[in-house]
């Protein structure tokens, strides 16, 4: 059973702080890793993806991947109240060169307090 | 351009009825996915189409669930003899289907309520 684990939260941080969201996965064959943001009552929207070990930065967001530890994280710098949402970690593998379905964690609920 | 669209946005039905949920992917996207999301859970994979064919239907929970994509664009998820446990948000996603990291874009979902 391929699993993705996330702390369900809620994670509460003050405005302007760094929010750190973590995710572990069970399948060592996983090759691409995604962070989606989901506002209440809305569908998931992609924040960023990573597939190489190390850090990847995009604006206020940094994704970190450690395949040896099977660990992915998302850092949000200068957190804003508008960042308050559920953050979903998802992983996938490739089959015959094409990407397969995403396996999602349950999500971490982030609350940024003004 | 237009994103993924899904209809209806809400569907209320009675136990035992048949329902169809429609997904219209982003134009040109060859890969189409169906997921189901229950309250407090992440999306759960149901089925994946590459073109007209189901490349992976391992997530369909039982034979009451069936999906088609006859012309390689619009897809319909069909649920027979609905049960209360089928109540969830059904999400459709599409992607370009190319090699390498392939971003899936989600539609707004259909909220299904089985009474």
Walkthrough of the structure:
Chain A has no helices and 13 strands. Chain A has 114 residues and is mostly beta strands. By secondary structure, chain B is an all-beta fold. Chain B has strands at residues 5-7, 10-13, 19-24, 31-37, 44-50, 53-56, 65-68, 75-79, 88-95, 105-106, 110-114. In chain B, the strands form 2 sheets. In chain B, strands 2, 4, 5, 6, 9, 10 and 11 form a 7-stranded mixed sheet that branches. A 4-stranded antiparallel sheet of chain B has the order 1-3-8-7, with no helix packed on it. Chain B is globular. In chain B, 33% of the residues are buried. The chains are: A mainly beta (114), B mainly beta (115). At the A-B interface, β4, β5, β11 and β12 of A face β4, β5 and β10 of B.
Q: Key terms for this structure?
A:
heterodimer; A: 114 residues; mainly beta; six-stranded mixed sheet; five-stranded antiparallel sheet; 13 strands; 55% strand; globular; B: 115 residues; seven-stranded mixed sheet; 0% helix
SSE order of chain A: EEEEEEEEEEEEE
**Separate helix tally of chain B:** 0
Largest sheet of chain B: 7 strands, mixed
Kindly state the number of beta strands of chain A.
Answer: 13
What's the oligomerization state?
A: heterodimer
Strand element count of chain B: 11
What percentage of amino acids of chain B are in beta strands? over 45%
Percent helix of chain B, as a range, is: under 10%
H/E topology pattern of chain B: EEEEEEEEEEE
Give the helix/strand class of chain A.
Answer: mainly beta
Query: Separation of termini of chain B?
Result: 37 Å
Largest interface: A-B, 26 and 29 residues
> Could you tell me the mean pLDDT of chain B?
93
**What fraction of residues of chain A sit in β-strands?**
over 45%
Q: Major sheet of chain A: size, sense and barrel closure?
A: 6 strands, mixed
- Label the overall shape of chain B: globular
Low-confidence stretches of chain B: none
Measured between the Cα atoms of the first and last residue of chain A, the distance is 40 Å
